[in-house]
Amino acid sequence: MRYLFLLFLFGCNEDKFPIPSDCLEEPNKDLVCTMEINYVCGCNGFLYANECWAARDGNTSWTAATVETNCKE
């Protein structure tokens, strides 16, 4: 039973995405962002409504995206 529990904790994770070491910095939760929709993929592999939200979450870079974009590719 103990092995099953460890397998559950350290098993395969389909959401893994190689994040570059210089991609993230400390999130800036004080940054005020608009609700303007201009989708971007953050370097962490998540889709954001715009560049400000990506920066607020600590991303140091991002690329243009659409709502259909798979940012983890």
Largest sheet: 3 strands, antiparallel
Basic shape: flat
Order of helices and strands: HEEHE
Low-confidence stretches: 1-14
List how many beta strands DSSP finds.
3
Q: Quote the average pLDDT.
A: 83
Distance between the termini: 36 Å
Total domain count: 1
So what's the oligomer here? single chain
Number of helices: 2
Beta strand %: 5-15%
Strand order of the largest sheet: 2-1-3
Q: Calculate Rg over CA atoms.
A: 16 Å
Helix content: 10-25%
What would you call the structural class?
Answer: alpha+beta
Descriptive report:
With 73 residues, the chain is α+β, with helices and mostly antiparallel strands. It has one domain. The chain has 2 helices and 3 strands. It has helices at residues 2-10, 51-56, and strands spanning 40-42, 47-48, 62-64. A hairpin with a 4-residue loop joins strand 1 (40-42) and strand 2. It is flat, with a radius of gyration of 16 Å. The N and C termini lie far apart (36 Å). Mean pLDDT is 83; it is low at 1-14.
Summarize the structure.
With 73 residues, the protein is an alpha+beta fold. Helices cover 21% and strands 11% of the residues.
Task: Give a quick set of tags describing it.
73 residues, alpha+beta, flat, disordered N terminus
Helix and strand layout, with pairings?
Elements lengths: L1 H9 L29 E3 L4 E2 L2 H6 L5 E3 L9
